Amino acid sequence: METSGLVQGPIEIPSPEMYNIFPSILHWLPGPHHRIFRNFAELRVFISEQIQRHRQTRQPGEPRDFIDCFLDQMDQEQKDSERHFQEETLVMTTHNLFFGGTETTSNTLRYGLLILLKYPEVAGLRAGGPGMRGLGLGLAGVHGGCSSQPEPAPAKVQAELDAVVGRMRAPSLEDRGRLPYTNAVLHEIQRFISVVPLGLPRALTPDTHLHGHFLPKGTFVIPLLVSAHRDPTQFKDPDSFNPRNFLNNEGEFQSNDAFTPFALGKRMCLGAGLARSEIFLFFTAILQRFCLLPVGSPTNLDLTPQCTSLGNMPPAFQLRLVTL
Ligand code: HEM
C-alpha cells in the first residue's frame, strides 16, 4: 500500500529583501505577501484568545506554562510604572515562540529529507530486499517500492541506527552520543542549508574597528551566519554536502566553532536545545523505519533554496517513504 507524500511549498513572496529594506511600502502594494500579514493577524487573535483562557483558569503563583508565568510576573509588576511585562509583550513573545519554533525546525526537516534524497549514499536508501515491505508514505499511484531503485551505496545512517538502536525501540536523545555519523549528517544538513541565513540585528555599544573599518557606537550590525557556514577556511569544500566536516579521522563526531545555525552570544536562539532534540528525534525515527525514495532520478533534484534572506526554504519536492 502506498499513499501520498507530497511535500508542500512555501508562500511565495515577491522579494523578502524588499520587505526587509522597505517594510512599510510593501504594506501598500498588492500581492501574495498579504497572506502573511493575514496569517499574522489570525495568529495574534488565536494567541489573545489563549491568554484570555489562561486568565480564566489560572491559579496565581502556580504556573502551568509560559503564559501563566508571564501573567504571574505581570501581577508582580502591576504597580511599577516602568513595567516590562505587559499584555502586548506577552502576545508578541508568544507569537515569536510560535513562529521561531515551527518554521525553522520544519524547514530543516523538509530540507534534510530532500538532501538525503539527493545524496542516497549518506542516508542509505536501500534496494528492496526480502524484509522490506512496500508500505508507508508515497506518491499516490506510483508503485515499485525500493526494489525499483539501483543498488545504493552503503546505508550509512541506517546501518549505524541498526547497529546502535536496532528496530525494537525508538531512538532517544541518550543515543545521540553513540551515533557519530548520524550526528555529523544532521550538523552538516544545518550547515549546508543555513535555514536562518542572518542573525538578528544588533547595535554596537562601543565604537568598534573591524577589518580596517570604523563602526561608530550605535551602528546596526546584522551577522551573516551563512558566510561562516560557507567559509572554506573552516569547512572543506563548503559548497558540497559532506558529513565528514563533522567527523575526525577516527570517525568520531567533531564539532566546529564556525557552525552557528543558532547564532552566538546572549541573544542566540532560545530554542536551540529544543530544535536540536527535535531534529535528531524526527530524523532518526524516520530513517530507522523508512526507506526514502525520490520520484525520478536523484540527479534531477534541485537543492536551490526557494526564498533567501528571511529564511532558506527547500523547493517543493515529492518523496516516497517505504517501510523497512
Ligand atoms: C532549526 C531550528 C532553529 C534555527 C536554525 C533557529 C535559528 C535562530 C537564529 C539564527 C536566531 C537569531 C539569534 C541571534 O541573532 O542571536 C534565533 C532566535 C530565536 N529563536 Fe530560533 N531557531 C530554531 C528553532 C527555534 C525554536 C524551536 C524556538 C522556540 C521554541 C526558537 C526560538 C527563538 C527565539 C525566541 C529567538 C529570539 C531570541 C532572542 O532574541 O533573544 N527557535 N533562532
From TrEMBL:
Keywords: Heme, Iron, Metal-binding
CC cofactor: heme
UniProt-listed InterPro entries: Cyt_P450, Cyt_P450_E_grp-I, Cyt_P450_sf, Cytochrome_P450_fam2
Similarity annotation: Belongs to the cytochrome P450 family.
Record's protein name: Cytochrome P450 2F2-like isoform X4
